[in-house]
Amino acid sequence: MKPFIALLLSISLSACSPSSIPVSSSPKNPWLLVDNFEQTTLENWTNLDTQNDTAPFVANPQITKIISDDHNQYLIKKPAKDGVVGNRKALSFTQLPEAVAVGEIYTFYTEILVEQFPNNHAFGLSNMDASGIAKHAYNAFEPTLRVTDKYESNGFKNDGTLMVKIDSDDKYRQYSKVQNYNSGKPATPLQTSQWYKIWYVVNNNLIVNGGQSYDVYMQGGEFSEQTLVFRQANFRMKREQPLIYFFATCNTGPQTKPYGNGGLAYDNIFMSKGINLSLPTID
């Protein structure tokens, strides 16, 4: 326990250091940049493997790095390289340029691309500090989006459709697929090697005021235009505290029944006060 406590202390202190990311928006541009990965390093990010059960043991097994192609730079995240299993909590998080206070509504924008299946990824926002995220992992999430085709413990097989967190008495059905409301059916699974644009409108009001929920809009795949794909998804823990971190994690699964090491790419993470369904731009 002592090395882990020391680790929590060190990341808690480092999280207080100034960020180089812009901290205010202009009247002409309401979007705040969280990260677009056009830099060469991830100095504003913390990457931790807090349940590393790899055997043979691999230190720091996650792959979280900036990729540069002919047209763009983006982040790729994988729990481990192919053939390595047992990394159960590959965490990555960065402090938001401004907090989402209790009572406020903010819109977040994120672009994602599935490198390959099988995989198990989640991303969203946290109201815990760096040491809290390291300690609580998945339970540090509030708004949560999920990409996976893994089997659940009860044998249910996910199919790679984007998912959101819901309140449910069924412990095996804590997420719902996003919906195609025009067809009255769940959206189709995410396709590999294709970028999707996602807007999530986050209501950080108190529960009694209708908050601790989020709506999701999406463009890509079957949705050629920006489309509402889920109404009133639920915060995971509902702590009713300011949201302060963007948080992503992935998981190879246990040694006995691994999920897979397929990667998820991230790009152009932004936030904007209020409901803003425009495309972000940088001044």
Can you characterise this structure?
It is a single chain. With 283 residues, the chain is mainly beta. The protein is 7% helix and 41% strand. The protein contains two helices and 17 strands. The strands form three sheets. Strands 1, 3, 4, 6, 13, 14, 15 and 17 form an eight-stranded antiparallel beta sheet that branches. A seven-stranded antiparallel beta sheet has the order 2-5-16-7-8-9-10, with helices on one face. A two-stranded antiparallel ribbon has the order 11-12. Helix 1 runs antiparallel to helix 2. The N terminus is likely disordered.
Shape: globular
| Unreliable segments of 5+ consecutive residues | 1-25
Percent helix: under 10%
The succession of helices and strands, N to C, reads HEEEEEEEHEEEEEEEEEE
Alpha carbon gyration radius: 18 Å
N- to C-terminal distance: 46 Å
Strand content: 35-45%
Nutshell version of this structure?
This protein is mainly beta and 283 residues long.
Structural key phrases:
8-stranded antiparallel beta sheet; disordered N terminus; 7-stranded antiparallel beta sheet; mainly beta; 2 helices; 283 residues
Topology:
Layout: H1 2-14, E1 31-35, E2 45-49, E3 63-68, E4 73-78, E5 90-100, E6 105-114, E7 120-126, H2 130-136, E8 141-148, E9 163-165, E10 175-177, E11 179-180, E12 185-186, E13 195-203, E14 213-220, E15 223-234, E16 243-250, E17 264-273
